[in-house]
């Protein structure tokens, strides 16, 4: 061992593995890493006067410098050794190393310089023929010297917790940063199993990971591991653990270096951010107060707490204005949502909060608080049902927080932790406040939406027909499914002259008050235009013009007005049924095609050409289609294409051809019970035929004899219908005036038609489309009084235009003789 002794302490191993490894490793690797030699040749750098700062490498890594026997004598001397020490092989071989060094002071100085150099030499034993020789080799390059220095500094001063583990995962050495980390004393750590010293939650699993690193050599970085208990009995901590295998020069596993970093604060902060992000992403998707509350409990359980309860003031559920804090103790709250093990009260129950509990206190001062849950807590006695649920659920920690906005109380949220969950800490209050602030804003939006929807539904209910007309020519019933957000669907049944009935169904896109008022405006326009007895296609065109003007008014609103950004879109379908001709004329703008079921059970979707939507940019005309509709046929009109897409609904209509329409609507509602996402309106009409004996149709000549012939025919028919004398006289007068005007201003063919259907209708048709005008004749005028007389004696009169010509009609109430 003389050679190793001559190299001195500074030539010994200074590697990280030897400096920190187990004793066995140190013994095996003595001399493994030593400072590298420098150029000390007699005629080299030193001979030229260069100092240590101008040294140069004299050997390369791996060169054998010399071999020394067990007695310390040189048995082999390389040229590189001669360059370093200045001795030739003849001078060095066979001599003692000590003699070579101390015989010449210069050689001793060179050896000291070699020991202090930035490189290293390696001294290792070699077993040969039952004897031991020592081999001195050039070591690692110069950079390794600095690597060693860096490693020593890191292990001594780095604020990361470093551990050297042996092959049984026992802690051999720790660095100074370990103080205060382990739940046990730092003095007792060496010798303990690593996973036990830290009291990890899953020690077996962690030991298995460490052994895999030991066996395979693949490092493991940044494993998030939870400890059962922190230092000094504090809450459990979260550690980031990494493992790296220590290897000998031959690649054999010596142990592990385990680094531990306490990331509890970081992980808790990240967890809080993740919870808050989840709440902001999940809560507020639906515009219903109860739904928002359920979204809140889904977002926080189990991410934040094991149990969550949301209780909302009952007025808020209905859309009313929330009260200001402090809230009156008598204000009822509804349990809006719950998620967890066991609920003290069912969701939906309305009750007053007991006075003297944290929940009532929160509604008084709007301050969140961490509440200790102890068996003797006074507030538990005020609410026995809740106390029992808390006990049975194993709750040990509670946060009560208000749902409030601008000083107004909306409700209260209770977060419970139970079982193995960590107790709430003061830092959780900030997260609770952020969560509840977002939830309160979403609940307030839902409350406002509920209030607006309630107002809009009320307005719409008032604008829709309160008592739909019941004409004698058709039986009518309707099915209205409002949907979640309401809508702008409406319908009308309008009686027209000549035993005709107009069926109107429309739909304004959108929700809320603006949609409801627009629907009311369009409905009034339809009724006003229907009173003019326009043809269905003409009526639809005028309705579209009105909708376009409303859209232009909406677009002209200030940019800040929400209605400015909401375009007006509406659809409509008009069907006019003539019970005398037994036919129906259809015009549609955007809505689905009608469906008809005939009396024999056959059915079809009527092919009615589609016109453009109302208020749209398409200026195409609205084509009208006339279809024969026999008596007993059932017509179905919808605002959505539910019939074409559902064979079940069509089958119900086909089977219910003889079923009362109200019962048929009920059957459709039962079948559509799962289709409540959007508003749906179905209008059913069953056609009736006016009996032939209630209609008189008489062709008339084009000459002066037309009026007397018409009066005589009318008198005979009225006598057959047993109409009273006063009504008969009035009818003769109306027939005379209308026929006289047709003869004078019209063109053949002329026709008289009398219809008795509740009211007595007198119609005179001719082939001229020019409109008659009501005039107020002067005393000296000989003509111009015909229509004035008709308007005076009739209850109603008007003009109905057809494809060829027109029909002037007048109606009056009649009495029996």
Short description:
The chain is of the alpha+beta class and 817 residues long. It is built from 25 helices and 31 strands.
β-strand number: 31
Spans of at least 5 consecutive residues with low confidence? 1-59, 777-783
Give the number of helices.
25
Report the β-strand fraction as a percent range. Answer: 25-35%
The largest sheet, given as strand count, sense and whether it forms a barrel, is: 6 strands, antiparallel
Strand order of the largest sheet: 12-11-10-15-14-13
Gyration radius, rounded: 51 Å
Helix coverage percent: 25-40%
Overall description:
Helix 12 packs antiparallel against helix 17 (428-463), helix 23 (706-720) packs antiparallel against helix 24 and helix 24 (725-745) runs antiparallel to helix 25. The termini are far apart. The protein is α+β, with helices and mostly antiparallel strands and 817 residues long. The chain is built from 25 helices and 31 strands. A six-stranded antiparallel β-sheet has the order 12-11-10-15-14-13, with helices on both faces. Strands 17, 18, 19, 20, 23 and 24 form a six-stranded mixed β-sheet that branches.
């Amino acid at each position: 061992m003389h050679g190793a002794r001559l190299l001195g302490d500074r030539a010994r191993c200074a590697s990280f593995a030897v400096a920190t490894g187990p004793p066995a490793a140190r013994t095996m690797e003595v001399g493994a890493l030593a400072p590298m030699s420098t150029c000390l040749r007699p005629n080299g750098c030193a001979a030229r006067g260069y100092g240590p700062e101008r040294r140069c490498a004299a050997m390369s890594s791996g060169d054998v410098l010399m071999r020394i026997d067990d007695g310390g004598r040189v048995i082999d001397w390389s040229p590189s050794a001669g360059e370093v020490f200045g001795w030739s092989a003849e001078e060095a071989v066979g001599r003692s190393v000590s003699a070579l060094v101390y015989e010449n002071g210069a050689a001793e100085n060179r050896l000291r310089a070699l020991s202090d150099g930035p490189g290293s030499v390696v001294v290792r034993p070699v077993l040969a023929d039952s004897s031991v020789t020592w081999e001195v080799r050039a070591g690692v390059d110069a950079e390794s010297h600095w690597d060693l220095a860096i490693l020593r500094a890191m292990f001594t001063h780095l604020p990361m917790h470093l551990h050297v583990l042996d092959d049984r995962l026992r802690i051999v050495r720790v660095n100074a940063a370990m103080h205060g980390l382990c739940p046990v004393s730092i003095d007792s750590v060496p010798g303990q199993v690593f996973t036990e010293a830290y009291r990890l939650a899953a020690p077996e699993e962690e030991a298995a990971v460490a052994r895999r690193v030991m066996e395979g050599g693949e490092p493991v970085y940044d494993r998030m591991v939870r400890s059962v208990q922190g230092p000094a009995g504090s809450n459990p901590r979260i550690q980031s653990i990494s493992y790296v295998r220590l290897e000998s020069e031959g690649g054999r596993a010596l142990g592990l270096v385990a680094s531990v970093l306490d990331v509890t604060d970081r992980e808790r902060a990240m967890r809080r951010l993740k919870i808050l992000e989840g709440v902001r992403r999940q809560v507020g998707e639906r515009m219903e107060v109860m739904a928002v509350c359920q979204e809140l409990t889904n977002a926080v359980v189990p991410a934040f707490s094991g149990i969550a309860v949301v209780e909302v003031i009952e007025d808020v559920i209905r859309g009313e204005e929330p009260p200001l804090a402090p809230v009156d103790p008598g204000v009822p709250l509804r349990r809006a949502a719950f998620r967890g093990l066991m609920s003290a009260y069912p969701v939906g129950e309305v009750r007053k909060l007991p006075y003297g509990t944290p929940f009532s206190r929160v509604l008084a001062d709007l301050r969140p608080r961490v509440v200790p849950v102890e068996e003797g807590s006074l507030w538990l006695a005020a609410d026995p049902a809740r106390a029992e649920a808390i006990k049975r659920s194993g709750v040990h920690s509670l946060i009560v927080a208000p749902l409030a906005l601008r000083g107004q109380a909306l409700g209260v949220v209770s977060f419970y932790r139970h079982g193995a969950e960590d107790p709430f800490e003061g830092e959780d209050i900030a997260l609770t406040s952020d969560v509840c602030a977002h939830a309160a804003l979403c609940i307030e939006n839902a409350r406002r939406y509920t209030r607006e929807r309630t107002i809009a539904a009320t307005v719409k209910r008032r604008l829709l027909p309160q008592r739909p007309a019941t004409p004698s020519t058709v039986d009518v019933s309707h099915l209205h499914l409002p949907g979640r957000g309401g809508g702008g669907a409406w319908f009308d049944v309008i009686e027209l002259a000549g035993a005709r009935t107009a069926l109107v169904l429309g739909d304004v896109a959108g929700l809320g008050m603006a949609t409801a008022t627009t629907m009311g405006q369009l409905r009034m326009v339809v009724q006003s235009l229907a009173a003019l007895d326009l043809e269905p296609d003409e009526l639809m065109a005028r309705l579209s013009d009105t909708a376009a003007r409303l859209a232009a008014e909406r677009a002209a609103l200030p940019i800040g007005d929400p209605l400015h950004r909401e375009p007006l879109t509406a659809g409509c379908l008009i069907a006019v049924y003539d019970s005398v001709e037994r036919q129906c004329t259809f015009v549609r703008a955007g809505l689905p095609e009608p469906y008809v079921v005939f009396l024999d059970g056959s059915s079809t979707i009527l092919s009615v050409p589609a016109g453009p939507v109302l208020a749209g940019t398409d200026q195409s005309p609205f084509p009208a289609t006339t279809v024969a509709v026999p008596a007993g046929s059932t017509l179905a009109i919808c605002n959505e294409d539910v019939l074409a897409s559902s064979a079940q609904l069509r089958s119900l209509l086909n089977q219910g051809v003889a079923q009362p329409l109200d019962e048929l609507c009920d059957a459709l509602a039962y079948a559509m019970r799962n289709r409540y996402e959007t508003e749906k309106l179905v209008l059913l009409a069953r056609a009736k035929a006016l009996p032939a004996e209630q209609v008189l149709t008489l062709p008339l000549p084009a000459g002066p004899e037309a009026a007397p012939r018409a009066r005589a025919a009318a008198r005979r028919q009225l006598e057959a219908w047993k109409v009273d004398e006063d009504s008969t006289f009035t009818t003769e007068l109306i027939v005379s005036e209308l026929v006289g005007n047709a003869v004078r201003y019209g063109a053949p063919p002329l026709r008289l038609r009398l219809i008795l259907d509740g009211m007595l209708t007198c119609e005179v048709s001719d082939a001229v489309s020019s409109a008659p005008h009501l005039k107020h004749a002067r005393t000296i005028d000989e003509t111009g009084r015909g229509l004035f007389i008709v308007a005076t004696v009739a209850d109603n009169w008007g003009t109905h235009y057809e494809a060829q010509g027109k029909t002037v009609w007048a109606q009056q109430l009649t009495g029996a003789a």
